[in-house]
Automatic annotation (TrEMBL), chains A, B:
<protein>
    <recommendedName>
        <fullName>tRNA pseudouridine synthase A</fullName>
        <ecNumber>5.4.99.12</ecNumber>
    </recommendedName>
</protein>
<keyword id="KW-0413">Isomerase</keyword>
<feature type="active site" description="Nucleophile">
    <location>
        <position position="53"/>
    </location>
</feature>
<dbReference type="Pfam" id="PF01416">
    <property type="entry name" value="PseudoU_synth_1"/>
</dbReference>
<keyword id="KW-0819">tRNA processing</keyword>
<comment type="subunit">
    <text>Homodimer.</text>
</comment>
<feature type="binding site">
    <location>
        <position position="111"/>
    </location>
    <ligand>
        <name>substrate</name>
    </ligand>
</feature>
<dbReference type="InterPro" id="IPR020097">
    <property type="entry name" value="PsdUridine_synth_TruA_a/b_dom"/>
</dbReference>
<dbReference type="GO" id="GO:0160147">
    <property type="term" value="F:tRNA pseudouridine(38-40) synthase activity"/>
</dbReference>
<dbReference type="InterPro" id="IPR020103">
    <property type="entry name" value="PsdUridine_synth_cat_dom_sf"/>
</dbReference>
<comment type="similarity">
    <text>Belongs to the tRNA pseudouridine synthase TruA family.</text>
</comment>
<dbReference type="InterPro" id="IPR001406">
    <property type="entry name" value="PsdUridine_synth_TruA"/>
</dbReference>
<comment type="function">
    <text>Formation of pseudouridine at positions 38, 39 and 40 in the anticodon stem and loop of transfer RNAs.</text>
</comment>
<dbReference type="InterPro" id="IPR020094">
    <property type="entry name" value="TruA/RsuA/RluB/E/F_N"/>
</dbReference>
<feature type="domain" description="Pseudouridine synthase I TruA alpha/beta">
    <location>
        <begin position="8"/>
        <end position="105"/>
    </location>
</feature>
<feature type="domain" description="Pseudouridine synthase I TruA alpha/beta">
    <location>
        <begin position="144"/>
        <end position="246"/>
    </location>
</feature>
<dbReference type="InterPro" id="IPR020095">
    <property type="entry name" value="PsdUridine_synth_TruA_C"/>
</dbReference>
Amino acid sequence: MTKIKCTVAYDGTLFHGYQVQPGKRTVQREIEAVLSRMHHGQLVKIAASGRTDAGVHAFGQVFHFETPLHIPEDRWTLALNSLLPNDIYVRQAEEVSEQFHARYDVKKKEYRYRLLTRPEPDLFRRAYTTHIKQPLDVDAMNLAAAAILGTHDFSCFCAANTDIKDKVRTIYYLSVRQEKDDETVIRIVGSGFLYQMVRIITGTLLDVGIYKITPDRVAEIIDGRDRQAASATAPPQGLTLWGVTY
Amino acid sequence: MTKIKCTVAYDGTLFHGYQVQPGKRTVQREIEAVLSRMHHGQLVKIAASGRTDAGVHAFGQVFHFETPLHIPEDRWTLALNSLLPNDIYVRQAEEVSEQFHARYDVKKKEYRYRLLTRPEPDLFRRAYTTHIKQPLDVDAMNLAAAAILGTHDFSCFCAANTDIKDKVRTIYYLSVRQEKDDETVIRIVGSGFLYQMVRIITGTLLDVGIYKITPDRVAEIIDGRDRQAASATAPPQGLTLWGVTY
């Protein structure tokens, strides 16, 4: 058996998230269906770096699978892309050692969250940005971001419905930048992320950006470890899993 | 009765074009349904500057309608947008004289066609660009564009299935510009456009850009007045009706 690692982009708009759910169109289901077809109907399971929620996009999601087929690395991308629907695109495929695991070996993940910051909505970016009508104080948001950097128990930024016990994670990088006249992008790199963590951090930074809470308040929220103290979860469509490092 | 002129943007992806067709989701149908709802079920017809094909977008389509309601101009946009689906957005509404007609009074129309020019596709622009894998010779395309400028019988750039007899139109402006590392945009302004004219012009300019035909050839194609001599119709999703001048 050969182990293949794939880097995949997908547009989350028309998926019920990454993970297989009975009767739903999900990214995992579409990829496994194509792989099973390539393996003459034999079930092929894939393991990804983690799941993404409905509406969340990926530019550099990673998954692996094992195969008895002998196909050159660059032929895997061609074969998969010719069979996959046009909202999934395999950017790279490579052979990896049998020890590699797409989920357990993650060192860092990067997410980006795009905010459309202007009074009017934009139809053509509605699936890829979250529209914020008010102006945002980017400097205040970056002050707040500084408090999130480093290793903390991030219970305050974890959705309530999770079984995960250890909520300590490390945030290596977090920036808020105005990248166009009408677009502000949040970039965050961490050792790993709790359920809906990036969206709750985004919601909290947004509240700082519109002066609903002060930048200083964010350190207190982290120390308190209480989800109720943080802000509302930002919508999924602005979020993209940008890349995974091993 | 008051006549209202509206400027509307729509994402053509999920529409079967602009014009009402039985049993299909079209832009006209959605807008008329909302207007009829606002008029307590009374049928309200709209007249647009022209139709757009399935998959074609609009940033500045214009339509008008007549109403017995007394609503301030800026309230029309709020009322319509609160009821319209999220792939249609009324950018402006204004009262006009009863002589105004959105179709018959058109002086100029501008279309833009976005080309994604790089080897790899981009999932996130697939609904708004046409992907061209080969490099394009933009200078050659602009040479060809110069031959299209001015007043001509454009039979060569008109889809065969049309009833229109007079195929003389004036092109005021036509440019091909690389606007990003991986995006080239064709802008065209004319007195009016025949059925699929912009997409056939785009297809012809693309053939110039990849050296399939020479820039000189385009003047001959126009003179010949034969649709078969021009190139294939470019796909709809790269095209946007940018604006209409009265």
